[in-house]
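Render DUF4386 family protein in 3D.
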Amino acid sequence: MILSGSLILVGLIVNAVQRGLFHPTGAADHHDEIFTKYAASQAWIATHLAEFLLVLVALAGLLVLCTVLREHTPTLALLAASAIIATAAIWAALQAVDGVTLKQAVDAWAAAPEVDRATRFADAEVVRWAEWGLQSYFRVLLGVALLLAGAAILLSRLMSRWLGVLLLLGGLLSLLIGFSVGYAGLESPFQDVATIAFQLVILVFAVGLLAAGVRAQKANRR
């Protein structure tokens, strides 16, 4: 549990810091404005590579948790681990599109002569819409993984039930965000609130899991 909680915390916190420092911000669905910022960013590819690796670190923490739960709830733990692996795969595709393909598309638009700018802009929008689709399915798959892991925690009774409840809540929020992205794009008032709530839920879960692991380790030494 210590390793699992530590990996999740490191992935979440370091990624939040590096995104805050290097990732351009703005209205994600106002393409003229945001594409200009993306084209001007010198750190775009690097910050997305960092994000890719750090989220994988957090997902690895969930996989470690599944190995802990497998002895007590083998079916649910296996299903959760499978969903986490699928989530990691679609995350890789999402970051390839967002971190590399979109950057090339907006750079080509920014550098194009006036006669070609409309075509280049349309190309960049197609890439952006592909990102929407991948983001939507990433969130849905992550939600399924968290729901399965949360149910495994509740049934295993290996740790406090409130940790399982937190994962169930996080899974539900991730599912709802995924559906919202699919219908509304990358920004909406609901996503603003739900994303913050999701991040807080997973942060509290990771801290609680780490604390539970430390307590269990101390108890085993007595």
